[in-house]
Specification:
Number of helices: 12
Distance between the termini: 57 Å
Number of strands: 15
Strand order of the largest sheet: 2-8-7-6-5-3-4
Largest sheet: 7 strands, mixed
Bound molecules: D-malate
Structural class: alpha/beta
CATH class of the largest domain: Alpha Beta
């Protein structure tokens, strides 16, 4: 008889954001017509930049004409898009080849799919609190997970020690959910560690566009030695509002080799087998992101979300609530008041002031007692949510 993948038994009942949506729906079903202030999942609220929309329209028009019509796209991505991404890296002094860039349908898809490259016996080191898909995708693949807790004692930025192990190392900087960012020197420590033990870093750079401190690296490839130990997974979801449009890219250096096998070649083999690539129209839209006009427009959207973050932070300051993040990242990570548990605080905010955030414990045990607010909401909702939180928190 066919045997299901028994690893699924090890998973929690449902995925964090699904759980939050379900609890919120139960509440709105019981309170028809009530408005919810959604500061939970990091879903953007601004429309795509007009240069992206124009490029998407042109892409559609291309598909209507015999001369410009495109059928199957190259599985690993169109050169016209790779060129713009190469330029984006080049502006930060990182030299990559077109062949080292793989266009994907988004970072979350890629973070799960990329695990195909590694033997199932390889362990995964997850710095927690962490984006829950790292753990869940590793569990589905039957991998041993090593949890490395982070906390305010190390600024949510743990470093490798002599006891650290892990074949795959997930690093997310700017971090989801804490907003913490690794400095160059700190990342160098992880790179040296990975090279010394033959590990591979899966660097999640989904939030790099939010970095405002000049000396904070946007890419692991700004660190010497990363080209022999890292894969970088990027997304246009938060950078350019592509959460619903779906587009991302992954960088796998040609020099990333283990036991004589080149991961770049392996990923080409994987992609050419398992996908026919991302749609032509969407890639056209993506290519507009890194044009002069696109960069200007996405910069405006990011400024808007950063102002939202400041509005939320001011409310927390007034209520004397401890938090971090919100500066180089779109998330604010706060300590629940009065030693409340994460879900207890979630329920309090939902039931008393109709604000939905993300319970910290959903990002792993190290997140218990913390809570995440997203700055991706609309300005009106963010202002009202901040006001309601200020009032409630001051009264506790
Ligand atoms: C988050 O809220 O952590 C992210 O938006 C979820 C995701 O990117 O899938």
């Amino acid at each position: 008889m066919l045997r299901p993948n028994m690893n699924y038994r090890e998973l929690k009942d449902s995925y964090l954001f699904y759980n939050i949506a379900k609890k919120t729906r139960e509440y709105t079903d019981a309170h028809p017509g009530i408005h919810i202030y959604r500061m939970g999942i990091g879903d953007v609220s601004l429309p795509l930049a007009s240069s992206v929309i124009d490029a998407l329209h042109r892409g559609v028009d291309d598909q209507a004409k015999k001369d410009s019509f495109r059928g199957y796209m190259p599985e690993c991505g169109a050169d016209f898009l790779k060129e713009t991404i190469k330029g984006h890296y080049g502006r930060r002094g990182v030299d990559i080849l077109n062949d080292e860039i793989f266009i994907s349908s988004g970072a979350s898809d890629e973070l799960g799919n990329i695990l195909d490259l590694f033997d199932r016996s390889s362990s995964a080191l997850v710095i927690e609190p962490a984006y829950p898909a790292y753990v869940d995708a590793s569990i589905m693949a039957g991998r041993r997970i090593i949890h490395l807790p982070a906390g305010d004692w190390n600024g949510f930025l743990p470093l490798p020690s002599k006891d650290t192990e892990g074949d795959l190392i997930y690093i997310c900087s700017p971090n989801n959910p804490t907003g913490a960012v690794y400095s160059r020197d700190m990342l160098k420590k992880w790179v040296d560690f990975a090279n010394s033990r033959g590990s591979v870093i899966l660097f999640d750079a989904a939030y790099e566009a939010f970095i405002e401190d000049e000396d904070v690296p946007h890419s692991i490839f700004e660190i010497e030695g990363a080209e022999t130990c890292a894969i970088e997974i990027c997304s246009l979801s938060k950078t350019a509002g592509f959460t619903g449009t779906r587009l991302g890219y992954t960088v796998i250096p040609r020099s990333l080799i283990r036991e004589g096998m080149c991961f770049n070649d392996m990923w080409v083999r994987n992609r050419t087998t398992k996908t026919n690539g991302v749609s032509y129209i969407i890639q056209r839209g993506g290519a507009a992101v890194f044009t002069e006009e696109g960069i200007k427009e996405i910069g405006e959207a990011i400024k808007y979300y950063k102002e939202n973050a400041r509005i939320l932070m001011r409310a927390l300051d007034d209520a004397r609530v401890w938090y971090c993040g919100g500066k180089n990242a779109p998330y604010i990570w706060l300590r629940c008041p009065g030693d409340m548990g994460s879900w207890e605080f979630f329920n309090l905010l939902l039931h008393r002031i109709q604000v939905v955030g993300t319970p910290g414990v959903g990002f792993g045990a190290a997140g218990e007692g913390y809570f995440r607010l997203s700055s991706f909401g609309s300005r009106e909702d963010t202002k009202e949510a901040a006001e309601r939180m200020r009032e409630l928190l001051v009264s506790l």
